[in-house]
Amino acid sequence: MTTTLTTGPAGPAGPTGPNPQPDDLGAVRLTAVFPAPARFDVHTVETLEAWIADQRAAGARRLLVDCGDVRFLDVAVAEAIDTACAAAARADELEVINLSVAAAITFELLAAASLRSTKVAA
Questions:
Q1: Dihedral angle, C-alpha 22, 5, 99, 88, nearest 10 °
Q2: Residue 20, Cβ neighbours under 10 Å: how many?
Q3: Spatial CA neighbour of 8 closest among 34, 28, 32
Q4: Model confidence over 12-66: pLDDT tens digits?
Q5: What is the pLDDT of residues 59-94, one digit of tens each?
Q6: Strands 4-7, 30-35: parallel, antiparallel or unpaired by DSSP?
Q7: Count of Cβ atoms closer than 10 Å to residue 59 Cβ
Q8: To 10 degrees, the CA torsion angle through 110, 115, 120, 122?
Q9: C-alpha closest to that of 32 among 46, 57, 120, 113
Q10: What single-letter DSSP state applies at residue 99?
């Protein structure tokens, strides 16, 4: 599993990691993207949690979980994301983006039942 690192509008990612550049306000905005696998299940929770911890330790300001390729998402992953969102220092620190139909349906059903903190991009 690879991690793609990008920065705000002022600077592209370097070949081996981020190359943060200040935005117009002088703040460095570092975003890390986790490309979720097609089968995003209990067997990938440990990888996701380790990635989140590593990115937070590296100073990433915004973490995005890209679910564009997800064809199956189970409750263990949704709960791990929800727990990480609840523990986030800022409301926009962790976000689920680019939802496939399968991921969108799963998050919608689980959100109605139990998820409290997960921010899902429309």
A1: -70
A2: 22
A3: 28
A4: 333 334 444 454 554 555 889 999 999 999 999 999 999 999 998 888 889 999 9
A5: 888 999 999 999 999 989 988 998 888 888 776 788
A6: antiparallel
A7: 11
A8: 50
A9: 57
A10: -
- Written as six digits, the tokens of 33 are 């993207």
Residue 15 φ/ψ, nearest 5 degrees: -70, -25
Closest by CA to 3, choosing from 53, 41, 76, is: 53
- 5 against 50, higher pLDDT: 50
* 3-class SS shares of the chain: helix, strand, coil, % to 5: 35, 25, 45
Residue with tokens 């509008």: 9
Q: What is the pLDDT of residue 113?
A: 59
Three-state SS for 4?
Answer: strand
Q: How far is CA 61 from CA 11, 55, 64, 91, 96, in A?
A: 15, 9, 10, 11, 15
User: What sign has the CA pseudo-torsion 113, 116, 121, 122?
Assistant: positive
Strand duo 30-35 + 62-66: pairing: parallel
